[in-house]
Amino acid sequence: MKSRLITIAAGLAMVTASLSGCGNSNTSKKSSASRSTKKTTQVTSSASTAKYTPAKDLKSKYDVIIVGAGGAGMSAALAAKDKGLNPVILEKMPIAGGNTLKASSGMNASETKIQKKDGIKDTNQKFYEETLKGGHGTNDKKMLRFFVNHSASAIDWLDSMDIKLNNLTISGGMSVKRTHRPADGSAVGGYLVTGLLRNVKKQNIPVFVNTDVTKINQANGKVSGVKVKINQDKTKTINSKAVVVTTGGYGASKKLIKKYRPDLANYVTTNQKGSTGDGIKLITAMGGYTVDMNKIQIHPTVHQKPAYLIGEATRGEGGILVNQNGKRFVNELKTRDLVSAAINKQPNKDAYVVFDSGVKARVGSIAQYQKLGFVKSADSWTALAKKLNVPSSTFKTTVTDWNQAVKNQKDPDFKRTTGMDHQLNGKTCYAIKIAPGIHYTMGGVKINPQTEVLKKSGQTIPGLFAAGEVTGGLHGSNRIGGNSVAEIIIFGRQAGTEAAKYLK
Q1: Coil, helix or strand for 154?
Q2: Span 316-331, mean pLDDT?
Q3: Per-residue pLDDT, 46
Q4: Residue 306, preceding peptide bond in cis (omega within 30° of 0)
Q5: C-alpha span between 217 and 262 (Å, rounded)
Q6: In whole angstroms, what is the distance from residue 76 CA to residue 475 CA?
Q7: Lesser CB count within 10 Å: N end or C end of the chain?
Q8: Banded pLDDT at 25 (limits 50, 70, 90)
Q9: Cα dihedral angle (205, 492, 246, 136), rounded to 10 degrees?
Q10: Residue 461 in contact with residue 59, Cβ under 8 Å?
Q11: Would you say 182 and 165 are in contact if contact means Cβ atoms under 8 Å apart?
């Protein structure tokens, strides 16, 4: 029997440098990241220039309608298409991508072919335990188990669509390199959106922008379609027997932030302006319920004006954090909540991410930070200290001590054990001033591993599915960097598959 589906998408040698300079060539051991920079992949997001489907072509009935075009939604659409359904994507914003476009460091996965090729020993169990520890033991364990067990296949699935994340780095809270990113070390978000959009177009899946879902309709206790507003003017009802909500979180909603975490009301946010919790409202109106709504993640390294995420890979590839006194003050690769708390204890509640030209070569997104004017640079640590207005002698000692720690593979000050493959002795010295900012909302609607939306009673709402940041429970009290990208791909794909299974 032919059925109809609507998917609502919107979600890391010895010190040879003289103290007057940043150093000569980097003599530390090589990693897959440094090797991969020899062959640079030029990737830019096509979201803003993509040609979307004209509003006049919107039909009143579809196999699969995806409203909101983030990574989870496009993954759901592609999975549904693979199962023989005909998806369409509805996005309230003028362009596709959602918060996925903001993703920086990479996608976590364990037991992958990329890790094995690089000789990295990892297990799903280790990934599970470290994520559970990062979430302070409050994660939904069934969701987490499904997540880690399907992470490697998600990397393979992307690879099958020529979306290759074959360069490894590390994020805070992880013990091994399992953060997968593009070959040139660039930001994962734009690369993913470009690749997913390319495949959506290849599969002839229509994408409608400026199309806002205002209600999910029901008939006899089951999903029957949605009501949409087109270009903030014309309204239309679209019929379908299933809906997958992947509209993202609420990190850009001042109203919801103030409601659930008034202590964060004055923080800047890294979220795109469409992340206002729309999907949560749609689902709770149907009887779904929410969990962990007060669990809002503060990212430690955010450029403040304008608010812009400085990705974890900058530290994962060897960068350090230094305060206004020119000193390190924390293990830079602890979990985000702990690093943020440490920054908030510093003078002015801010700090500097400090790195060299070696880190810059391994982290493609730094070029974007430079283009935006966030980066201060100099040809010596002394000169950089003057630009930052920090004590130069203390600053130089801090870098020297760090390089010695890297040489010895032992950090006596803060017990850091990861992101220590390279000393800071490149030819140019860099720093970006940062402070914590709102980055991610761990709370959201409750689902099971089949991505079915649940009522408080534990019953499902027939035909209603959800995936990505709109959901809550997977990350517990604190999300590990690189897990959100994994979540949108793993559960977005699962949502499209399960919706097709429901309809058949």
Answers
A1: helix
A2: 98
A3: 59
A4: yes
A5: 33
A6: 20
A7: N
A8: very low
A9: -160
A10: no
A11: yes
Query: Which helix (DSSP H) or strand (DSSP E) does residue 302 occupy?
Result: strand 296-303
What crossing angle do the helices spanning 151-160 and 124-134 adopt, rounded to 10°? 110
The answer to whether 121 touches 176, Cβ cutoff 8 Å, is yes
What is the DSSP pairing of strand 375-378 with strand 452-454?
unpaired
Q: Looking at the annotation, which residues are catalytic? A: 336
DSSP, collapsed to helix, strand or coil, labels residue 253 as coil
Q: Which two tokens stand for residue 57?
A: 């072509």
Q: What is the DSSP string of 162-183?
A: T----EEE--TT-SS--EEE-T
Alpha helices in 317-420 (DSSP H): 336-344, 357-362, 366-371, 381-388, 392-408
Rounded Cα distance, 362 and 16, in Å: 20
Q: At what angle do helices 392-408 and 381-388 cross, to 10 degrees?
A: 130
Q: Which residue has the tokens 């940043």?
A: 22
* Nearest of 102, 170, 166, 175 to residue 133 by alpha carbon: 175
Give pTM, 2 decimals.
0.86
Q: Name the E strands within 379-504.
A: 429-441, 444-445, 452-454, 460-466
| pLDDT, tens only, 140-172 | 999 999 999 999 999 999 999 999 999 999 999
Give yes or no for a contact between 66 and 9, defined as CB atoms under 8 angstroms apart: yes
